[in-house]
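Weekly structure sync, notes
Attendees: PL (lead), two postdocs, one rotation student
Agenda item 3: pending single-chain targets
PL asked that the sequence for the first pending target be pasted directly into the notes so everyone works from the same version. It is reproduced below exactly as submitted, 78 residues in total.
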Amino acid sequence: MNLADLAARVRRLNELGRGLAKEVTLWKACDDPLLYLERKAYLNAVQDALAGVESARVVLAKACQRLERPIPRDAGTT
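Predicted structure, written out during the meeting:
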């Protein structure tokens, strides 16, 4: 696994997050055949998934930023 692989995963997680956010928006905006508690449980599960995807994306994005930074010449010396 290298930096390009991590960056690709960040992009895929970003796309997945956008898809999950769109799912939440669509379900909140439409009439559907679900009962109130079914809709609420479904939306809670999708929102939990969205939060997990976003957390994973942030971790990988920070790792990518760290790996993209040049290592200072005097690193480790004081």
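Discussion points:
- The two ends are 32 Å apart (CA to CA).
- Helices lie at 3-29, 36-68.
Action: rotation student to compare against the earlier draft before next sync.
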